[in-house]
Structure formats: C-alpha cells, structure tokens
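User: My instructor asked us to take a sequence, write out its structure as tokens, and then describe one feature of it. I'm not sure where to start. Here is the sequence I was given:
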Amino acid sequence: MIKYMKSNLVSCLYFFFIFLILSSIITRGWIHTWGTLNVPVLLPPHFDLRFYQYPALQIERGANPLFGVHELWSSNFKGWSDYYLYEFKLAHFLNLHKESYFIGFALFVLINYIFCVYKILNIRKNSFWILILFFSSGSLLGIERTNNDLIIFCLLYWVAMHPNILGVFLYLIAVKIEIWPAIAGIAFIKKKIKIFALILVTFFFIYNFKAIFYENVEGINDWLSFGSKSTSVSIYRFFSVNINYLTITIVLLFFTLFSLIPWLKIFKFEFKKEPTPFVERLFLIGSSIYTGLFIAASNFDYKLIFLIFCVPYVSMLRNKIDKYFILILMVIASNYTWMYNNNLTSVGVFINTIAKCFLFVSLLNLLIKYIYNLFKKYGIKKIFL
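Assistant: Let's start with the prediction itself. The structure tokens for your sequence are:
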C-alpha cells in the first residue's frame, strides 16, 4: 500500500484534496468552502450551468426560452441569440428545469472533468504541475460555477483521444456549445479526416451565421480575465495610459516573431522523449485555445483550464530553463484570485497580467515551431490535404 502511494503520490493527493473540498461542502456549506479557497461565490450553486436551466423553465411555462434569465444576468438584457435555442430545448428535454435532474447533470459534468484531468495526470506520473493547475483559482472558479467550459474541456479531451469520426462529432458538439472551440480543429492537422471536419464546421458557420453574430456581447473586463482586451484595461488601471488592444496584440506578436530568430535559441524545440501523437494533440488544442482567445476576446479565467492540456508536452522539453519558465508562467497566470488580495492595482495582479502576456508569447512560439517542423517533415500536402 505504501509502495503504491509513493509511486502514485500525485494521484493520491489529487483525490485526497478533492475529498477534503467535498467534505467541507457537506459539513460547512457551499459559501464557506469556496470562500475559504478565495473563490468568488455566486448563488444558487452551479450558477453558470443554470444558463441552461432558466430557459428550460421558460419552455416548461410555455414562454420564449431566449428570454429565460436570472436576475443577475438581466441588466440591459436583449435576449439570447437563436444560436442557443436548440441547446435550451435539449436542456428542457433532459428535464434540467427540475432541480434534482439539474443537480444530477451538474455532478455528471464535474465527475467527467475530474476524470479527464486524472487521465492527463497519469500521462506523466507525479506531475505536480497538473495537480497545481487543477487546484488553481481559475479551475476552482470553473468548478464552483460549473461553467460550460468544463463540458468543452471533456469533449476536447476525447477529441484528442479519438481523432476520427467520433472525434469530429464531439468537436462539432463543442463548437455548438460555444463558437471558440472551432480553433481546436488544429488537433486534426495530421489526420486526413481534417478535410471532413473543416467542411462540416464551415457549413455549420454558414448555417448559423446570423445567430453567431447576434449582438449580445460581454463587456471587457480585467478582473479574473485574460486577453489583449483585458490587458488593455489593466494597463490603463495601472498607468492611466490608453493602449488599444490591437496595439497590444501586434506588440506581443512581434515579440513572438523575435523569439523565433534561430540564433537566439529561445524555447529550443528539443525533447527528452518524443511526445506521443495524443500528447501533441492535447498541446495543439490547449495552446491554440489560449493564444486564439488571447487575441480575440476578453475571457474569464475559467478558460485557463485548457492550459492543463499543454503540461505533458511542455514537461517533455529538454531545456529545463524553458520548461520550468513556461510551467511557472502557467501557474502564475492561473491564480489571479490568490494574487489579487482585494486590490486591482496590487503587485500580484500586475505580475499575473505580465505572466499571461509572456505565456501567450511562449505557447505561440512552440505552436509555430510545431507547425513549421511538421511542414519541414511532411511538406505542405500533409498540412492541407
């Protein structure tokens, strides 16, 4: 028993800490548990997942589900896009308007998320980095809210595991839940089925074109957020200087290109052991989501859970300085609330913002090098055909 625990220390700690959180919720309550972990609490529990419950309640009442909304979401509310209509109808079909069914579904989502992270944890045994990222404030916030990013995380995990017809089907479900997982299609880059996936997702976007661009856009925020838009707000908060987010994006892209200059030897593309195709696909999904969303939007920190996908790949880098630099950036970027200290202009918040920018440059550097090496090895046909 002791020998097993030593060889599986991280896995044992993983389930032990989950047990502690669960025990605290049962004995001390939802608010006290998450408050102790410095995670902002919203009631009722699983608040974000109720995005599907309230429209389901509207359908049950015979009303328009596109106007089913909690009072906290109702400020200047113009109704949800038709894009979500089928999801709301599915939620009603699954009886999510009934609290017992809803809680059961929320637990199902959380258990699946825990299982998928556990499977990634076992790729490299005793990887404390994945353990730390799972219990980071960004991940815990997603768990407390039961945000639909957890569902997308699970779907994309299985996409990486099964890059075939099943993977394409799960990929399309993820895109239907939210638009942005479309970028994760890069996971099929080595597979011929990518043409089929590209055709399907193209038709999907054409069919949903009007609903996708419906004006119901979230405001830009720098609290518990990442992205060039959030960084622009943070810079103004710290230095009272207005810098357009496009300028920030261009500057970070310039630094990325600068880091690719061969003689600088920044982030050497060398590995102690060649990553498996599965590990590569996880990295492609995680890095493309982080860098793509960083450029495109202001994103809540729940989406930093996708950095977990990058850990096995980054952990295999031969150069220890490069490896630990990127892994430490991931940890810092994922722990806003523990660095925030109730002060939006604190040193901790500043370090967190800088870490997210450096992480963007680092992951984009590795992503570009991966695609470049793929091109060198297989030629343009392998990438596009």
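For the description part of your assignment, you could build on this observation: The CA atoms of residues 226 and 299 lie 5 Å apart. Try explaining in your own words what that tells you about the chain.
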